[in-house]
Amino acid sequence: MTTYDEPAGLTDLATTAERVHRSVEAVIEGKPEVVRLSLTVLLAEGHLLIEDVPGVGKTMLAKALARSIDCSVRRIQFTPDLLPSDITGVSVFDQQQRDFEFKPGAIFAQIVIGDEINRASPKTQSALLESMEERQVTMDGQTYELPSPFMVIATQNPVEMEGTYPLPEAQRDRFMARVSIGYPSPAAELQMLDVHGAASPLEDLRPVAHAHEIVKLIDTVRTVHVSEPVRRYAVDLVGATRDHPELRLGASPRATLHLLRAAKASAALAGREYALPDDVQALAVAVLAHRLLPTAQAQLNRRTAEQIVLEILRRTAVPDPSAQQWRQPPGQQPPGVRGL
């Protein structure tokens, strides 16, 4: 375990991540890849959108991850009558001080769970934009910093569309990755009946990592090296979405940045100090698909954004591993690596 004075290494990262992974899997059975992606997004300083049908454990996953880390947690139930001030906060006039006092809203937490985010109006949804991108809230000309680490985990139901508002593209683009939990296997569902039948395992979940540890692990992820060919590969993948004939909206430069940050976190979780094209490939669908808008003809042909990303992965040339040294040269800090 890391101390407050020592920087965290890859061994510390792997140990802490494994503790959190086991803790979350005690609640979400049979979905290790979903839990790993959630951890990847957390360590990459991103936000996670969980999109799936009712009853598969979207909110349970968000709560389990939040409770496994000793961080401040706030849950926001998005409804049509939710106001932006309910999220960001409001200035209240203090009669004694004869001045306005800012009352922080629910966004002022380290882990913010937004349940059924698409049930709130676009005006209310837009209250999250500044917080998710700049990790701050501006109110009445004053800027308030949000705590670190900071992560928004939002859920939405793509099936029941009555009384919902589609997420604006600007907000979808701020989510680093989208994940669908899916139905469990028969074996996992049987185990779920045993585990969840008597009581909720969330009640017994205790933190297995501290916020200070997570901040140090995030700093460790920032130092992971990304070679020039891997960066070019990510740019090629994202660029291909902008020219694809079946897409009317491709991925943004923010998507490229998120893809590389997630690849660095994935490499660190694998115990590597450098990212590989495999890290980019494994995360491309989760990071890119929710940002893309297929054309009307593609929708008529039942082509999904996920299928198009997989096609782009097959068509885009992968850097030759035999021709490139992926590791960072000793004593050399690549330019801009901490900005990735």
Walk me through the structure.
This protein is 42% helix and 15% strand. With 340 residues, the chain is of the alpha/beta class. The strands form five sheets. A five-stranded parallel sheet has the order 3-6-9-1-10. It has a two-stranded parallel sheet with strand order 2-11. A two-stranded antiparallel sheet has the order 4-5. Helix 12 (277-288) runs antiparallel to helix 14 (305-315). Mean pLDDT is 87; it is low at 333-340.
For the CA atoms, what is the radius of gyration? 21 Å
H/E series: HHEHEEHEEEHHEEEHEHEHHEHHEHH
**What's the β-strand tally?**
13
Structural class by sheet pairing and helices: alpha/beta
In terms of DSSP E residues, the strand content is 15-25%
Mean of pLDDT: 87
Report the sheet with the most strands, covering strand number, pairing sense and barrel closure: 5 strands, parallel
For the largest sheet, list the strands in their spatial order. 3-6-9-1-10
- Helicity level, as a percent range? 40-55%
Distance between the termini: 26 Å
Q: Which spans have pLDDT < 50 for at least 5 consecutive residues?
A: 333-340
Shape: globular
Number of helices: 14
